[in-house]
Amino acid sequence: MKLSKKDILGIKELSQDEIHLILDTAESFLEVSTRKIKKVPTLRGKTVINFFVEASTRTRTSFEIAGKRLSADTVNISASTSSLVKGETLTDTAKTLEAMNPDIIVIRHSAAGAPHMLARLVRQSIINAGDGAHEHPTQALLDMMTIRMEKGTLRGLNVAIIGDIAHSRVARSNILGLTMMGANVTVCGPAMMIPRDVVKLSVRVSYHMEQAVKDADIIMMLRIQLERQNDNFFPSDREYARYYCLNSNNIRLAKPDVLVMHPGPINRGIEIAPDIADGAQSLILKQVTNGVAVRMALLYLLAGGEE
Amino acid sequence: MKLLLTGGRVIDPSRNIDEKLDLLIENGFIARCDRNSVASADISQDTQTLDLTDMIIVPGLVDMHTHLREPGHEYKETILTGSEAAVTGGFTSIACMPNTKPVNDNRSVTEFILKQAAIADMARVYPVAAISRNSEGTLLTEFGDLHEAGAVAYSDDGLPVMNSRLMRSALEYAHSLAVPVISHCEDLNLSKGGHMNEGIISTELGLTGIPSVAEDVMVERDIALAAFTNTSVHIAHVSTAGSVEAIRRAKDKGVRVTAETAPHYFTLTDEFLRSFSTNAKMYPPLRSHEDTAAIKQGLRDGTIDAIASDHAPHSSIEKDVEFMFAASGIIGMETSLAICLKLVDEGILSLSQLIEKMTTAPAAILNIAGGTLAAGSVADVTVIDPRRKWTIDVSRFRSKSRNSPYNGWQVKGKTILTIVGGVIKYRDI
After folding, report:
1. CA distance A144 to A174
2. Any CB–CB contact under 8 A between B318 and chain A?
3. CATH no. for residue B87?
4. Angstroms from B272 CA to nearest CA on chain A
5. What's the Cα-to-Cα distance from B339 to each of B83, B98, B265, B313, B344, rounded to whole Å?
6. Cα B183–Cα B187–Cα B193 angle in degrees, nearest 5
7. How many domains does one find in chain B?
8. Which of A24, B309, B313, B421 is the most exposed place for a label (fewest CB within 10 A)?
9. Which residue of B203, B207, B273 to mutate against A (max A Cβ within 10 Å)?
């Protein structure tokens, strides 16, 4: 089966079957990263541009490693949004990149919809590596892959997503993906960080950690941006940690075999206690490992490579 | 020089007329438009006669809310191209907002606008002057001098007056001069950082929302100020159900509040933004279905007096960028009538009620000439072919800008003749 898509812009554009295909493909690529020689010739002669208009270390590195393990030529471009605003427009940059004939362009951008704009402008495949607070499909795919591998299925699982739901592209993509795959999703955070009408996305809303984690199979913590307190999204890091930090007390309310996830980077002691982040229930580093496999799968499926 | 329009259906809301009548124009004024048909004695050798059978003749349309961008942003629009767009859309009079560069906050800018309008010699152009100096929301402009220079209203459109005391002063001083204040209602703290209506679509797109209450609370404030000071206020571009309800309640209590909305606030919703189309980005933003329904009800029951386009030209430089970085505003003068005629097709308004909201009512609010076909009035006349089907094509616009969400729409009803002061300024017959 092939992915009949030019671009991966968001989870919204994917079907259940496509998600399964991507996760199956990713699982088959996991093994490559454990070899002594971590390289397959699948995408030899293909060019992947990692176009990052917003700072990123882990996602960019993950994409770069994914491309290299498939033998693609990867090129990283970093540009600050401000220089784009002042100087060259996204349209002009896109046309310039297109003229160099890459095969895939991976874009991270602070503006929601920027990858969609790029996809309209150029003939190459576009992968959204995070656009504003809109979507982060590769993160949601690696999260779903991790859950599916650990629990065997996504269907029927209770998943609590906790933190700044309003500003999180990770939350949005996971809400779309997990609900589509049959999980029961609860979102939780301070009232100011719960976006309006979010219940219309078929999630349960709670403002209380204890309520949200009760009977959870998966607890997904989000990174809190401390500067949000300057805009009154929460009163202080002290109060935030008091109510929304996952710790050894409130985690007991979840199912005994609950697993803990976090897209990273983590704020130790703010949204997650160190012993939980480092504990046996934590999947945080598995997520990172699976991230490379998911990105290899997407590059492979989009570039139409042959094994 | 005489012009005789014959055979058309005349709709003149100022006199409750809707019937087949002859209309005679002489020396720039309406000489006759009543049940006594034009006698042969009234027709001389130099009379030009136009047979307008099956056409609709109305007082020249008035767009009380436009942005002409001159001085300062002539690459987006000029007073010439803007007033050409106006007559193409059937507008004989347009009011232009003061957010030019420099801001129209003093006599010299007002006079410049009027001079350019006279050179353009298309539609009548009525400058709206700023409420505060440089529209900074702190110090009043010279209302008296600006009015003497030709300003017909005061507004800090685009930059709402957050200071309630300044707004109170503006309402009281303007009232003493019998000049209206037009309020752009938006609480800047509530709307801060917002790009679109706050609701399920903004939640899905991850874009910061502009809540409808950002408008509602300021409409309520301005109504309270007008009631307390016993003055009047005009609410610009109403976009929310809450505003409609507040204005309806205020009118019932006898507060002198008038209101306008724009065609996009009853034909488009925030659903349109799913594609991140920058041509659907404007302030106030496109709202929900509940809001468009409330706006239509407000138009029907008279809560909303007028329809204005909020014509806001932007070039591709401002619009062909990421949604978050795109400038706000859409053009509307060349599409307004055709889009508004949908209200008649849908049975929301009678044709006469629609025409009233597009000419008689705004002319009365601004206290300007026009809005009537009564004998002795200025001969500002628009002729509409109600059956003409056409496709909106931005590449054919007279406006310099192309930022319209209606591009490609199939519409019915078109201006075929626009007469300003007895002179034909646009003709498509």
Report:
1. 8
2. no
3. 3.20.20.140
4. 14
5. 19, 26, 11, 18, 10
6. 125
7. 2
8. A24
9. B203
DSSP E strands in B262-357: the ranges are 306-307
What pLDDT digit, counting tens, does each position of B363-410 carry?
999 999 999 999 999 999 999 999 999 999 999 999 999 999 999 999
- B52 plus B63 within the same structural domain: no
Spell out which residues of chain B touch residue A134, defining contact as CB-CB under 8 Å: 205-207
Asked if residue B14 has pLDDT above 80, the reply is yes
Determine, for residues B206 and A196 on separate chains, whether the beta-carbon distance falls below 8 Å: no
For A196, the closest of B203, B205, B206 (CB atoms) is: B203
* Alpha carbon distance B300, B280 (integer Å): 25
B204 interface with A at CB cutoff 8 Å: yes
Distance from CA of A239 to the nearest CA of B (A): 24
> β-strands B9-12, B56-59: how paired?
parallel
Asked whether the domain spanning A137-284 has the same topology as the one spanning A11-135+288-302, the reply is yes
Please report, for residues A83, A93, A94, A121, the alpha-carbon distance to residue A99 in angstroms, rounded to integers and kept in the order given.
21, 10, 9, 12
> Which pTM value belongs to this model?
0.94
- Residue carrying structure tokens 């895939």: A104
B206–A112: do the CB atoms touch at under 8 Å?
A: yes
Of B262, B95, B112, B252, residue with least CA distance to B180: B95
CA B405 to chain A, closest CA, distance in angstroms equals 17
Looking at the structure, do residues B32 and B110 belong to the same domain, yes or no? no
Question: B131 and B21 in one domain?
Answer: no
Which whole-number Å values give the CA distances from A184 to A17, A157, A213, B70, in the listed order? 19, 6, 12, 56
B323 CB neighbours in chain A (<8 A) are 111-113, 117
CATH number of the domain that residue B411 is part of: 2.30.40.10
Given CB atoms, is B223 within the 8 Å cutoff of chain A?
Answer: no
Give chain A's length. Answer: 307
Residues B50 and B67 in one domain: no
Determine the CATH number of domain A137-284.
3.40.50.1370
Q: Least CB-CB distance to A196: which of B198, B205, B321? A: B198
Which fold is adopted by the domain A11-135+288-302? Answer: Rossmann fold (3.40.50)
- Would you call B358 an interface residue with chain A, using a CB distance cutoff of 8 Å? no
Give the ipTM of the model, two decimals please.
Answer: 0.93
Structural domain that includes position B34: 2-57+377-427
- Residues of B serving a catalytic function are 310
The owner of tokens 């065997």 is: A152
Where are chain A's structural domains?
Answer: 11-135+288-302, 137-284
In a domain? residue B20? yes
Interface check B277 vs A, CB under 8 A: no
- DSSP lists the bridge partners of residue B342 as none
Q: Is residue B371 part of a domain?
A: no
